[in-house]
Amino acid sequence: MTIRDRIIAYWKGRSGDFGALRMKELQSKLAPRWLREITPHIKDTHQRILDLGTGTGFFAFLLAQRGYSVTGIDLTEDMIAVAKAQAMELQDSLRGTVDFRCMDAMQLDFPDQSFDVILARNLTWILPDVESAYKEWYRVLAPKGVLINIDGDYGVELKVPVVAQHHIHEGVANKTMQECIAITEELSISRMDRPHWDVHMMRKAGFSRVYLDMAVSSRMYDEEDELYNPVPLFSIVARK
């Protein structure tokens, strides 16, 4: 089984529970906090937005509820199936549109300069070739467009025992977590100096005005509950 197949199988097994957690997050106090993180970088509802590694559609739904139209892509068909089912449940609350497609974030089936805004949340840590991904994202981004990449150094952090009483990974079976750790050990990005390596690779791909923010978690989480992410999050905002 290739590393790509293992990644798909891992997320296929988590798609149902993952979708349920993201629906809770959409209705939680974290939702407006995420909006404060990302909407300052979006000019208006007419901008073309791509949500990479959308999973079950959290960011896509969050923005569509505010009138934005979003294309969400994910490698795992089961994640996209859950996202489409949840779109039906949420349709009355969506002022914008959501378009979900099964697609590899490293090989996008879009023409050059297709999007004004590209979002990625908790994606780059599990990509086999992040350097190529940054080049591909630069390709589909329109001139003066913005990439918002929110991630954590999961390749390192998941190996550290979690001291929080409640967190987003507590419901994940130990066997599943061990497979996740095993996958990250095969990925070269887990051995990089993140997020500084990411900043360098983004600039190498052509992005300008690359800004690193290490304080995302401090703004997002103020208590340990089932939505608390114990992995420190960073944000990199880069413009073309």
Question: Notable features of this structure?
Answer:
Rossmann fold, 240 residues, 7-stranded mixed beta sheet, alpha/beta, 19% strand, 9 helices
Structural notes for this entry:
The chain is of the alpha/beta class and 240 residues long. The protein has one domain: Rossmann fold, CATH 3.40.50. Helix content is 40%, strand content 19%. The protein contains nine helices and seven strands, in the order H-H-E-H-E-H-E-E-H-E-H-H-H-E-H-E. It has a seven-stranded mixed beta sheet with strand order 3-2-1-4-5-7-6, with helices on both faces. Helix 1 crosses helix 7. The longest helix is centred in the N-terminal third of the chain and has 24 residues. The N and C termini lie far apart (37 Å).
CATH level-4 homologous superfamily: Vaccinia Virus protein VP39
User: Helical content, roughly?
Assistant: 40-55%
The whole-number mean of residue pLDDT values reads: 95
**CATH fold name, please?**
Rossmann fold
Instruction: Give the termini separation.
Output: 37 Å
Gyration radius (Cα, Å) is 17 Å
* Count of separate DSSP helical elements: 9
The main pleated sheet reads as: 7 strands, mixed
CATH class assignment: Alpha Beta
Question: What sort of overall outline do the alpha carbons produce when their principal axes are compared?
Answer: globular
Strand order of the largest sheet: 3-2-1-4-5-7-6
Order of helices and strands: HHEHEHEEHEHHHEHE
For the secondary structure, the number of strands is 7
Beta fraction? 15-25%
Low-confidence sequence ranges: none
Domain count? 1
* Corresponding CATH architecture: 3-Layer(aba) Sandwich
Category by helix and strand content: alpha/beta
